Amino acid sequence: MTTPAGPGARFESGATVVRRDIHLGKVWSAQPHRAISDTGTLLEIGYWPGIRALAPTTWTQALRTGDDTTRKNGLANLAAGTWELEPWAWRHTVLRSRFDTTGQWFSLHHFQTPAGEPLRLYVNFERPAVRTRIGIDTLDLLVDLLVEPDLSAATWKDEDEYAHGRRLGFITDADHQTWQSAARHSRVRHDQ
């Protein structure tokens, strides 16, 4: 695991920032992003088609084959700490992400086409981002909130994966309680 960066450490605009998911002391995924801005507490980063990253083989196989069952079955590997990674190139969308590194259990993501047309907003529920010398470490909690670009509607995504993560013990009771609080904080009620 990478040593956490000191308080107030910042990334210069244009610097590479690696966003990693860490579980059981191991890297579950790693994506290099470009720093857009960084106040020391709010980090904004960008990601676009063609950037190469590391992702779990179950996820990349699901993307190649269209078999989402493979990706969902990979949750057992995640819970057990037995996954494997392989290179993967991001496709189709440009992503602009914001991480509040003061202990928030979610990050905000703006998806758009390569031509700049807005597609959706995304609230990714995850463990609080920790700054490191190379970027930020967190862990995706599997459930997300999709928001229309005009903010007219919001829907939950991957509730079944979240429930499966709870059954496997990957999402702890403490994680669940904190997620419910974060969901309320984002002004969206969800009973699960």
Report on this structure.
The chain is α+β, with helices and mostly antiparallel strands and 192 residues long. Helix content is 23%, strand content 41%. The chain has a ten-stranded mixed sheet. A two-stranded antiparallel sheet has the order 4-5. α1 (57-65) packs antiparallel against α2 and α2 packs parallel to α3 (159-168). The longest helix is centred in the middle third of the chain and has 13 residues, at 68-80. It starts with 15 loop residues before the first strand and ends in a 7-residue tail after the last helix.
Helix content: 10-25%
Shape: globular
Identify low-pLDDT runs: 188-192
Gyration radius (Cα, Å) is 16 Å
Main sheet: strands, sense, barrel? 10 strands, mixed
Q: Widest sheet: strand order?
A: 9-10-1-2-3-6-7-8-11-12
Mean pLDDT: 88
The helix count comes to: 4
Estimated structural class? alpha+beta
Beta-strand content bin: 35-45%
Q: How far apart lie the N and C ends? A: 32 Å
Q: Helices, strands, pairings?
A:
Blueprint: E1 16-23, E2 26-38, E3 42-47, E4 52-56, H1 57-65, H2 68-80, E5 85-89, E6 94-100, E7 106-112, E8 118-126, E9 130-131, E10 135-138, E11 140-147, E12 154-157, H3 159-168, H4 173-185
Parallel strand pairs: 1-10
Antiparallel strand pairs: 1-2, 2-3, 3-6, 4-5, 6-7, 7-8, 8-11, 9-10, 11-12
Helix pairs in contact: 1-2, 2-3
Question: Which features would summarize this protein structure in a list?
Answer:
two-stranded antiparallel sheet, 4 helices, disordered C terminus, alpha+beta, 10-stranded mixed sheet, 192 residues, 23% helix
